[in-house]
Design brief:
alpha/beta, Spore Coat Polysaccharide Biosynthesis Protein SpsA, Chain A, 3-stranded mixed beta sheet, 7 helices, about 20% strand, globular
Length: about 260
């Protein structure tokens, strides 16, 4: 389990290949990823996750330090995409915070059923039931996104039809070889209609196009919960603390500092 799997390609589209079942080490497993800017959150994430769960974890290296890589190896396996670049641009890594590696990593995770859980998620309970939704690709609703500037822009672009729900990709349940997962990886390189968004917004468009490959997660598996709203979250299994909110980021950092 404590092993590094290296993946590199001059063109990331070359990484989209059928899953090799010979690499499977567990039926169920968790995937989480980060780069050097957010590796300080790893211990915070692990502290909550390991209190309630012992499923194997694959950590995605999207540009971690050597120290963080070694820490991840001590707690699971590492999927190393740190050397994969966008074709034609040495300065733009496809597996950055906003683009690409979240879509690719599950294709190479050594598990049959996968739960992707973002680094700013506080796992507050056992997640065994989450894997029951991995027959397709499953996401929970994002009740706030339609109010944002980008949410309105996606509506106006017609990529997200009027009346469609928005979903959050902070927690994903999916099985290996999911058709929607393969399409997501391809579109994370190509973009949709030539307009590049973050991985979440690309996936959102695909959910609208291919609803038969999609299933909705109950909110308790991805409760969007900045720390200022913590008093309303008694039944959530996973609290998505939304590190994009400055107050939440401060609280996460304070808690993480206490673990060092």
């Amino acid at each position: 389990m404590n092993e590094t799997y290296h993946f590199a390609a001059r063109n990331p589209i070359d990484l989209i290949q059928p899953f090799n079942k010979d690499r499977t080490i567990a039926e169920k497993g968790v995937v989480v990823g980060c780069n050097a800017a957010f590796e300080w959150m790893l211990k915070w994430w692990w502290n909550y996750y390991s209190q309630h769960n012992d499923y194997p974890v694959a950590f995605v290296n999207a540009g971690m330090s050597r120290e963080a890589h070694e820490w991840c190896l001590a707690h699971g396996c590492v999927l190393d995409f740190s050397n994969t670049l966008l074709q034609g641009d040495e300065n733009d890594k496809v597996f950055g915070i906003e683009h690409g590696w979240k879509a690719f990593a599950p294709l190479y995770a050594p598990f049959e059923r996968i739960a992707w859980i973002d680094l700013d998620c506080e796992v507050a309970a056992n997640i065994d039931d989450l894997f029951d939704y991995a027959n397709k690709l499953a996401l929970a609703r994002d009740p706030f996104f339609h109010k944002t500037r980008l949410g309105r822009k996606l509506r106006e672009s017609k990529l997200i039809p009027e009346g469609e729900q928005f979903y959050n990709s902070g927690v994903i349940a999916v099985r290996q070889a999911s058709p929607l997962l393969l399409k997501w990886a391809a579109e994370s390189v190509n973009g949709i209609d030539g307009w590049r968004h973050s991985d979440q917004h690309i996936l959102q468009g695909l959910v609208c196009q291919y609803p038969d490959f999609f299933e909705e997660l109950p909110e308790r598996f991805n409760k969007l919960a900045p720390y200022k709203h913590a008093d309303t979250l008694h039944d959530a299994a996973i609290l998505h603390r939304l590190a994009s909110h400055p107050h939440s980021l401060q609280v996460i950092r304070k808690q993480a500092d206490g673990l060092n």
